[in-house]
Amino acid sequence: MARPAVLWLLLALTACALAAPQNVVSKHALESLSLDDLDHQLQTCPIVQELSAVKHAHHAAAPSSLTTRLFAVLFPGSPAVNALLATLYISGPPNFLLALCPTNIDPSSLSVMVAFAVGGLLGDTLFHLLPEIFLGEDEPDRVRFVLVEPNRNLVLGLAILVGFMTFVAMDKGLRIATGGAGHDHHSHAHAHEADAQTTAAAASGADTGTGNGQVKSRRKGKSKKEDANEDQHKEVNPSVKLGGYLNLIADFTHNITDGLAMSASFYASPTIGATTTVAVFFHEIPHEVGDFALLVQSGFSKRAAMASQFVTAIGALMGTLIGIAIQEFGGGNTDGEASMPRNAGLWGTSLTWGDMLLPFTAGTFLYVGTVAVIPELLETGPNKMQELRKTLVQFSAVAVGAGIMLYISWHD
Q1: Model confidence over 197-223: pLDDT tens digits?
Q2: What sections of the protein cross the membrane (predicted)?
Q3: Mean pLDDT of all residues in 141-158
Q4: Given this model, what pLDDT does residue 171 score?
Q5: Helix 150-177 and helix 238-268: axis angle, to 10°?
Q6: Can you give the pTM of this predicted structure?
Q7: Which of 342, 347, 411, 408 is nearest to 34 (CA)?
Q8: Which residues make Cβ contacts (< 8 Å) with residue 399, sequence separation at least 6?
Q9: How far apart are the C-alpha atoms of 23 and 16, rounded to whole Å?
């Protein structure tokens, strides 16, 4: 019994054969054709050619958008070159911005930026990555037909789940190592609040037995802030210090997945790569500031904390290079797919290992945009009116972040 996908293709090609009899293809021949060969057969159909001509004329008449021209300037090379450029964009500026951050910054004050990043990540995932994963890339000058492969969709869904659960395992492992603190990628101060308060109390002399000593110190010309900064590096709770080092490991691993996202998205299409870069960039700003604040709380000096963040940025470069290698040598490039029979891929599908990177990335983005960040946006304080205003601002920021991704996708 023929599979539904083969039956659909036979019907489509038979319909074309009514106008062009030379296009008749047997079922046995269809089984051995690659996706590229099948698409070529369909493109010879007069009906498809007419549809492609209409689409090409419409695209040629429409002016290119501002974002399209900007992306063409920022990413002018091959997928590999563009992925490396994107990694530089998402790793360099956020780390340099740390030089402007005060050491006593509270990550919770970045809630609006976090909400904006959530909208960008979820918008990129829902408007760009998932449609690209299951339907493929649209082309401006011709129509495309999507081959319905149920098992192919199952494997892609499995890869999304693996990406999601990989971050669950990372977060769970860090919580076990730190006694339940975890790594939420943004509000690290909340995760270590109890230890930080203990450290701050020791540094500021909140203990009643040291109050007179502080007064004498200030009389000698030292400010309370200077005393706190000096004592903070002397008296750091061991669990807070351990949390700082474990956070560096988690951040390094997280940056590897960002690098994989860069390579997978640019090999999928230039637009997907550009939008993913934008989403990750705005996510990295509050992420890096939160990590910076945690490292300072853990006893790092400002210079040491910045240097540590630059070291973790190497993880993004490693992830990008790994992703490029998988795409180039793992069968994920177009040339490899063109010569591969349709059922010769993973588990009898048309998929290759390179095709697994994009759904894996979508799974990690879903985790970061929901489980890792949404709980922070759900936190509330005792002042109801203040929290209501804060919630409206956060929801507006989410809408703006998602709206930018929708605008890019709509006008692409």
Answers
A1: 444 444 444 444 444 444 444 444 445
A2: 70-90, 110-130, 150-170, 304-326, 356-379, 391-410
A3: 80
A4: 83
A5: 160
A6: 0.70
A7: 342
A8: 119
A9: 7
